[in-house]
User: Fold this.
Amino acid sequence: MTRKAADANYAKSQLILGQSYAKGQFVEKNEAESVVWFRKAADAGNAVAQFCLAWQFYHGIGTSKDLGASAKWIGLSASQGYALAENAMGYDCDQGLGVNQDLVEAYKWYQLAVKQGNGDAKVNIAKLQPRLTAEQIADGEARIKAFIPKGPGLNSDN
Assistant:
């Protein structure tokens, strides 16, 4: 049933199929095939699939390692308010992985993830804050206030 729905371009089913191939659940494990299905769902705007695809690129699982592509997909997922992606985008900005290092932007993404209860982001922000000036923190807070999630989001049928 999931395969039929995935073939009919239902992004949630494409995500589930990608996860199945990545883990070898109900199908033979095939990391390259998981990338195909994550990409289809990610292209449709599914924030979780975008994060999963970014993970594959970051680690070179089923595809070549590509930090730029990873940051692109993490950014798209984070821009929809997906907390795991917000933390990951914060880390990318903090460390300059696939993007230019920007500690204020890292602060913004970490804090957005913290507001959703992400424990890793709490640890990351605690490590980042001592490296920031009061002016940088104020700039980060302004960016947080201006942030409006965009895209289909997490509760979309797609």
